[in-house]
Amino acid sequence: MRFFGNSRRALNLALQGGGAHGAFTWGVLDRLLEEPRLEIAAISGTSAGAVNAVALAAGYVEGGAEGARARLAALWRDINKAGLPAFSRYVSMLAGAEALATSGYQQLTSVLSPYSFNPLDINPLRAILRAHIDFEDLRRNLPFELLIAATAVESGLARIFSGAELTVDVVLASACLPTLYQAVEIDGAHYWDGGFAANPDLVTLARHSRARDTLVVLVNPIRQEGVPRTAAAIAGNIARLTFNQPFLRDVALIDAARRCEGRFGHRRNESALGRDWRALARQRFHLISGAAHTRALSPQSKLKPEGRLLRRLHEAGRNEAEHWLADHFSDIGRRETADLPALFLHAGTPSFSRK
């Protein structure tokens, strides 16, 4: 068994995106940060998961675990205050701003691009991030490894930013919905939401982190029963399928690595690829899922961070983390508690049970 620090158990965190539903992840992190026996080794975050990740890290730099909890709470408080995208107040054609959180938003973005209805590329998240995170200080004093995923517009490939690359634009790129905001330019390349390519990235995290255990925090349901028949339901399910595919691809890679390890594990392969493949195969995964709490919510609610919704999801996340710690803390460093390939690739209905 491998520990870090004062015999604390080291854990990687992989945080999925999900807009306002990312408040569930906030709740999970809020509870985990109260656990003195845990040490965060690395965080992989996408979109809302990236926002949670950098806020946690920035708060941790200044005030340890309690500083991280306070920073997350303050950031989500401001997200709630910002409400609907701020540019809606300035564009006369969007006088009915509530359309952005209803089917009217889908109708608008199906005929107009953000280069038309948001020509100034106003993004309230930029001001919120700058108010709560000193990126220069964060880069200089990273408390653990941060991996932030964005999607390259031209190639569709995932771009994982880390270390000295971390800026406010990187986080905005990771959370850039292309129907709402203009692509974010970084060093001459343009990026959209990381959820299209890595949601969250599991492979880089597992291959390169010093810790052998990764807790995956999922916000979106992987499976949705029934066939959608309304236009809104179809659009919601298309989005769910699109943003879940990168996660399922990573799970398939984990499955392939484990099959190869089982078949050829006795053969030494000291190449970088061989070592990375072996590290991926041997990573122990754990899971906290918010699907039970988000499945019945409308896709449009991701764009409308109402106080009641955020509080409800935060509390749900805290409760799920409390149960997970009670059931599985002793497993960290010993055994995995979520066989991701069995749950999401080989089972008819993904599920997992507590002890």
Write a brief structural summary.
This protein is α/β, with parallel strands linked by helices and 355 residues long. The protein has helices at 23-32, 48-82, 103-111, 114-117, 124-132, 135-140, 168-174, 203-208, 231-264, 272-282, 291-294, 307-328, 340-344, and strands spanning 3-4, 8-15, 38-46, 145-152, 158-162, 184-186, 189-193, 213-218, 284-289.
Report on the structure:
The chain is of the alpha/beta class. 46% of the residues lie in helices and 15% in strands. The protein is built from 13 helices and 9 strands. Strands 1, 2, 3, 4, 5, 6, 7, 8 and 9 form a 9-stranded mixed sheet that branches. Strand 4 and strand 5 (158-162) form a beta hairpin. Helix 1 crosses helix 2 (48-82), helix 2 (48-82) crosses helix 5 (124-132) and helix 9 packs across helix 10. The model is unreliable at 1-5, 86-104 and 349-355 (pLDDT under 50).
N-to-C SSE string, H for helix and E for strand? EEHEHHHHHEEHEEHEHHEHHH
Mean pLDDT: 87
User: Spans with pLDDT under 50 lasting ≥5 residues?
Assistant: 1-5, 86-104, 349-355
**H/I helix tally:** 13
Structural category is alpha/beta
CA radius of gyration is: 20 Å
